[in-house]
Each structure stands twice: as C-alpha cells, then as structure tokens.
Amino acid sequence: MSDDLQNYQLQLQQVEAALLTDPDNQELQKLKIDLKEVIELTLDLKNKAEEAANQPEYTEPVGVAEDDEITKSLLAVEEFVARNRTKKMWRIGDICMAKWSENGQYAEARIDAINPDGQVNVTFETYKNRGITTLDELREFTGQKRVLSESEKMKKAKMHNKEYLKRKKQKKQQRFKELEEEREGEKKKWLAFASKATKKKTGLKTKSIFASPDSVNGRVGIGTCGISGKPMTEFATAEKWRKGV
C-alpha cells in the first residue's frame, strides 16, 4: 500500500507540472482531483490498518464511554424503537415469543427474516440459538424483557458499531476500486496526451547540401545558389591547346 501511495503522489506531481503549461486542460484537472481522492482514501485505509494492528484485544468495559458518540447514538435509536414498536404486523427485528423445537416451549426470540411462504427465521434471546417457525405460531411478547447490564449494552452496541464500520469500510474500498479503475483510464489518456505533446515539439529541419535536389534543375553539392543575388557559378568548357595558335 505504501508503494501505491508513493506512485499516486508521483503521478500527482507530474499532472500538476503539466497543468503549469496547460492550466485549462480539463482532462488534467479531473485527473488531479481523482488522484487527490485516491491518495486520501489510501492514507485513510493505511491508517485504519495500522490502528487495527495496534489495537489490543477487546476487554469488557465497565460502562458506556461518554466520548463514544456512535455507540450512544445506536443505543438511543434502539431504545426509541423498543418504546415505539407496534405489534400489528410482524417485522424483521421484532421481539416475539416463538416455540423452541428442543422442548416445545415458547421463549423470547427476535425475528431475523420473514419468508414469502410464511416461515420465520428467529434467534432465541435466552439460548442464542437460531430456529425456524411460522407466522401462525408467533405470539406477542407480553413478559418483561430482561434488562441488560451496562457492560452487555456496550458489548451489543459495539457489535452493531463493528458492523456499521465494516459496511463503511466496504463502501470506501469499493469507491477506492472505482477510482483506481478510473485513474487507470485517465492515466492512459494522460500518456496519450503526453505522447501527442512530444510529437508537436518540432525543431528546425536541416538539410544536407548533398541531398537530392528539390527540382530537376537543382544540383547536388551547391549550397550557395541564389544567395545575395548571385547566380550559380558557370564554368567554361576547356578547349584543347592547339600548337601554334
């Protein structure tokens, strides 16, 4: 992950350098924004991984931490739902009385799933076992629900919090993957752009005086023809010396 981070930062520097010469290039501007987001996500994932590696084993807390805002919020929502839940229609998460197959007795249970055929998946609160029953066999919970201790509430909330953070991490990793794929596409565009920009840099073309002439009247090796208004040097044909002439 560290190697990827360095690679992203290097690419960002290259893009920023290219923007200095072409600040209005929209492709480069978008690539810069995407690279910054990828770097931020990579740093976040790296920090989370380091925190998880350094975190000690879970110990049973003695009370609810005042600064744990997420846990307190989850507890408040759970208590609100418990106070305002209606029993006119069974819903997932409802507390009910379901028949336990081991002894045929009704016990407190939580509804996990309701299938179209009327079967219901439940988890018995007392035994912490899962079971299957039907809607017709469910009864409303009329007894007093066992009050959880502060440590049990905290542990339960921590489990919800763990699932919440897990889902959040999965969403972040999915976003990271999407940005990585998009960055690869932008990288190809950037390479094509850089290649095109290199081809545009043309210098003065020098031509050898011994190159083939441009016209049928041109001569090879003559490099000063027509300079300063002077025509090409003419040479007289040498004649034989005649004796006595």
From TrEMBL:
InterPro entries hit by this protein: SMN_Tudor, Tudor
Listed name of the protein: Survival of motor neuron-related-splicing factor 30
UniProt KW keywords: Coiled coil, mRNA processing, mRNA splicing, Nucleus, Spliceosome
Annotated ranges, domain Tudor: 89-148
Molecular function terms from GO: RNA binding
UniProt-annotated location(s): Nucleus speckle; Nucleus, Cajal body
Task of the protein: Involved in spliceosome assembly.
Database matches in SMART domains: TUDOR
GO biological process: one example: regulation of alternative mRNA splicing, via spliceosome
Gene3D superfamilies xref list: 2.30.30.140
Taxonomic source organism: Psylliodes chrysocephalus
Lineage of the species this protein comes from: Eukaryota, Metazoa, Ecdysozoa, Arthropoda, Hexapoda
Keyword DNA-binding carried by entry: no
Pfam family, one: SMN_Tudor
Family: Belongs to the SMN family.
Coiled-coil residue windows: 154-189
GO terms under cellular component: Cajal body; cytoplasm; nuclear speck; precatalytic spliceosome
